[in-house]
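Subject: Sanity check before I submit

Could someone independently write out the structure tokens for this chain? I want to compare against mine line by line before I put it in a report. The sequence has 319 residues.
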Amino acid sequence: MEPSKETKPEFNPYIVQVRQPWFKRNGFPDWLVAFMWIFVAFLIFQVVGGVVAIVGIVLTQGLDGFDMEALGENMGLLIAGNSAGQVVGLLLATLLVARLSFSKSKYRDAMRLKMPANAGFTFLVATLLVVAVQPFIWFLGWANQLVPLPDFIVQMEDAQVQMIEGLLTGSFALWFLVLNIGLVPAVCEEVMFRSYLHRLFENAYGILGALLVTGLVFGLFHLRLSQLIPLTFIGIMLGWMTVKSGSVYPAMLMHFIHNSGTVTAVHSNPELLEVAEASMLPPLWLVASSLILTVYLVYLYGKRSEFSIFQKEQPYVRQ
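---
Independent answer below. Compare away.
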């Protein structure tokens, strides 16, 4: 009697075959992939931004007119290069990597690239929240200034602040500033931090852990230790809105309002810079009012959401 031959199971087209992403198959945890991508995206961002700025100077001034001093004097090209770097490194490259990381059928859900339920109410709360919290963010910035920093960091940040102030009070049109400082970062940074990195950190640490870690990484990413506390708080707030709404679009709106509002205010009233430079403590009644209103809006919107920041969702994998 001949031994029975093993038969391969018949292929069933109705059974979904789930295949984990390459980093899962090779033993890389989600948190490590997240930190690796932060480094890679930042590198792409800087390289593309520098190349665009250099090419722009060469095209406008020729090879003979290019040097490091010329690079520092062409703020328009620098900010255009910065935006190009964000679009390529933080937005397009992140979307590509996310395609390789999440299930095709669950890609939009994993990245939260969908409109929130009750969109009108959500966007209204997002707008009110980012406006209401501004005095409290001012207070956090003042408190951050009390933390002593090494002299070389202080000097580096002073140079950065002077460059930003020159940009905001210069001859650039307001629309140019709002586009490059308001809109581009609002879209690119939110896709990278709140869509992709937040989901990876959720898979590793749960929602609460992801809010804290992503918020801190968001603050550090801006390379301004003198503003690390308010930037981290902003990152946590944007992450909370993303989780509660199930969509990254409200966070994009909040990010845009925060950045473009600051740009518009300083561009129209340069004397506001004197208040910022003086590191003045905001009126305590204003801080208290801001905090109370912020907490109320968080409570109002939070109770309408089914998501809890203490839950740990099922990790998304590639299909």
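---
OP: Matches mine. For the report I'm noting this point. Residues 22-302 form one domain.
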